[in-house]
Design goal:
Blueprint: H1 17-22, H2 24-32, H3 36-44, H4 46-50, H5 57-65, H6 68-73, H7 78-87, H8 92-99, H9 104-112, H10 124-127
Helix pairs in contact: 2-7, 8-9
Length: 129
C-alpha cells in the first residue's frame, strides 16, 4: 500500500526519507551546535563555519537568513533547527512564532487557547468534496 500524500496540506512540510537524505548535512550542522566551542566558532564567522559542511548553497543561505521555513523545505528537521535558535538565544516559542508570522506573545496566546484553528489546515483534496 502506498503511503498517503500529505504534500497538499497548506503550510505543512513532511519530513520523510527523501527530505532526511536532502537535509542530512544541514541537520548534522545543527547538531554540531550542541557543543559550546562550535557555537562560538559559528557565531564568530557563520559563513566560514557553514562552508565546512557539504550543504547546498540554498541551505547555507537559509541558515544565514534564519529562514526556518526554507530550512524545512530543504530537508531541515525542526528538532535540529532549534539548535540554531538556541545558539541565537531565541526560544522555541519565539522561533515557531516567527515561522508562522506571529509575535511570541500572540503565538503563546493562541496555543493557550487550544492551538490554531483547523479551518484551512486540511488536505486541499478535502476542500473539493
Amino acid at each position: 500500500m502506498d503511503a498517503p500524500d500529505f504534500s497538499d496540506i497548506p503550510g505543512t512540510v513532511i519530513f520523510d526519507a527523501v527530505r532526511a537524505r536532502q537535509g542530512y548535512a544541514l541537520n548534522r550542522f545543527c547538531m554540531s551546535l550542541m557543543q559550546a566551542d562550535n557555537r562560538l566558532r559559528f557565531k564568530a564567522d557563520e559563513q566560514t563555519y557553514l562552508d565546512q559542511w557539504p550543504m547546498s548553497p540554498e541551505q547555507k543561505q537559509a541558515v544565514l537568513a534564519r529562514d526556518m521555513n526554507r530550512c524545512l523545505e530543504l530537508g531541515g528537521n525542526v528538532f535540529f533547527l532549534v539548535k540554531i535558535a538556541a545558539t541565537d538565544g531565541i526560544s522555541v516559542q519565539q522561533m515557531v512564532a516567527g515561522m508562522v508570522g506571529m509575535s511570541a506573545q500572540a503565538y503563546r496566546d493562541m496555543m493557550m487557547q487550544g492551538g490554531r484553528p483547523i479551518q484551512g489546515n486540511r488536505s486541499l483534496s478535502e476542500w473539493s468534496r
